[in-house]
Amino acid sequence: MSGFLLDLFRHPHPIVVHFPIALIVVAAAYDLITVVRHREIPPGRGLLLWLVAAAGAALAVATGPEHDARGISAWFEPHERLADVTLILTLIVAAWRLWAVWRHRPVGGAVKKTAYAILSLSAAVAVLVSGYYGGQMVYEEAIGVSMNGNLVHPPIPGSHGEHD
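Now predict its structure.
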């Protein structure tokens, strides 16, 4: 098996995680433009972005290699919590859009549009901050980074997979 495929199966998180980051930010930007330019948000426009973003966020959370960082990184807990918040917000936005499509009604009215926009932008902020913390773990603490087959910063024995 090639090196890329082997890494994909052993360490999918760094490969998977970039898709929901991009999709959530693009979907939120699209929503913001739509909210500013129109009286209502057509339920079907942008729906696919949010559905794929939600699926990608779920996959990113599921593939997070917590065993690499638990106990050795101050960034792990905020990264994990914000990833969960991102997933929840993304699922809420996608569900809201699906509900609007099912009801054949756009998201309209100042209060609903504002609430929707806040949720959408909150998902984008959460994914960006979570990504920042993930980057801190990799680029500042070398979490999950190997050199000559050995982890640069190996996990602390006994902290593998513990939860608060």
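The longest strand covers residues 40-41.
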